[in-house]
Design brief:
single chain, 355 residues, alpha+beta, Rossmann fold, OB fold (Dihydrolipoamide Acetyltransferase, E2P), 6-stranded mixed β-sheet, 5-stranded antiparallel β-sheet, 8 helices, 20 strands, globular
Length: 355
């Protein structure tokens, strides 16, 4: 199962040249600087723009190639942009019905109810759009898109217009929806925190082209990834293995080590994601001793490259099969004698691990 995209197109003055095969399952995040072509990429897939040269196939179904074109209304795609674009004169229920009635395979009533419960909008159906919060409007827009029974969901910066509170409100719903659905999701965002929370696969774009793509953590850990230096870091999949009620801490096991973090209430055996920023990782030649740092993880240096400032250096390391990043001064790197293949210890404060 895959999404095959080969596009040559010009949008304004931007030449779009994309040749990529993306996973046909899970959430693929698409990121890059403003104006690099992320939205145009989605619009070409949806059929809202017709590229000069284009090939789009979703899980074996050809939507377009040379001499073959399926128009947008016949593509089994759900599309949600920054603006929820609800019909202002219709209730939530009527907005949802608009999507459902335009499906070639209408969602059964029980599944419709389950979807509304999943997105937390079952109690909102009699409201008008102007009586909804920004997060509620986006949840309704996502539900309307899903009620079309799409085989692909496209989300174009759905949280960009929301403040931090509304974003925090909507993220858990997006997370739950992406885990429950059996359709691929392409998710455009600038925000690394959103990507870290939701994505399985990452596409990095620049100047109309895909410059890097792959599994989330491997792509995040690339030292040349186009992220702000302060956001550099990795995402690890882990399992809760113990909870310490005395200190309100939880121990997480990942492929390569263990971490103590604050206890957020997940039961032992639960799968969790954690994000570790490069700036919160210290490199040492020995485990942490007589220190406030709770976590010491053995690792091997893979690569060293310059950072944003000439005084700094980023280090890519591997703990077992897992990749991590550290940021330190070049002076510290030289003092430690860091070099590829060297065995070191990573010191990570429990309070610095993000959930």
């Amino acid at each position: 199962m895959s999404i095959r995209v080969r596009i040559q197109h010009t949008v304004g003055s931007l030449p779009l040249a994309i040749d990529a095969t993306l996973p046909g399952v899970g959430v693929t995040a698409i990121t890059g600087p403003s104006g690099c072509g992320k939205t145009s990429f989605l619009r070409c897939i949806a059929g809202l723009e017709r590229p000069a040269i284009g090939e789009v196939a979703v899980n074996g179904v050809m939507w377009q190639d040379l001499g073959h074109w399926i128009p947008v209304h016949r593509r089994a795609v759900g599309y949600v942009a920054q603006d929820a674009a609800l019909f202002p004169h219709l209730t939530v229920r009527a907005n949802l019905a608009y999507g459902w009635r335009r499906s070639t395979h209408p969602v059964p009533a029980l599944q419709r109810e389950a979807l509304l419960d999943l997105l937390g909008i079952a109690e909102l159906q009699q409201r008008m759009p102007h009586h909804l919060s920004g997060g509620e409007r986006q949840r309704v827009a996502i539900a309307r898109a899903l009620l079309r029974s799409p085989c692909l969901l496209l989300l174009d910066e759905p949280l960009a217009a929301l403040d931090a509170g509304r974003k925090a409100e909507l993220l858990p719903y997006l997370d739950a929806t992406s885990k429950s659905l059996q359709i691929p999701v392409l998710y455009v965002s600038h925000a690394v925190d959103e990507i870290a929370r939701l994505a399985d696969h990452l596409v990095v774009m620049s100047a109309g082209q895909v410059v890097s793509h792959g599994p989330l953590n491997e792509t995040l850990a690339r030292l040349d990834a186009t992220f702000d230096a302060e956001d550099a870091g990795v995402v690890l999949q882990a399992t809760v293995t113990a909870r310490d009620a005395t200190w309100q801490l939880a121990r997480l096991a990942f492929d390569g080590g263990d971490l103590w973090v604050r206890d957020d209430g997940q039961t032992v055996g639960s799968a969790v994601r954690v994000r570790i920023l490069a700036r919160d990782v210290s490199v040492a030649l020995v485990p942490a001793q007589d220190s406030s740092v709770l976590n010491s993880v053995p690792a091997t240096v893979e690569a060293l490259l310059p950072d944003a400032h000439p005084a700094q250096q980023r280090v890519r390391l591997r703990a077992g099969p897992s990749l991590l990043l550290a940021r330190l001064t070049r002076r510290s790197s030289v003092s430690l004698g860091l070099a590829p293949g060297m065995r070191v210890w990573l010191h990570i404060k429990a309070v610095a691990v993000l959930r």
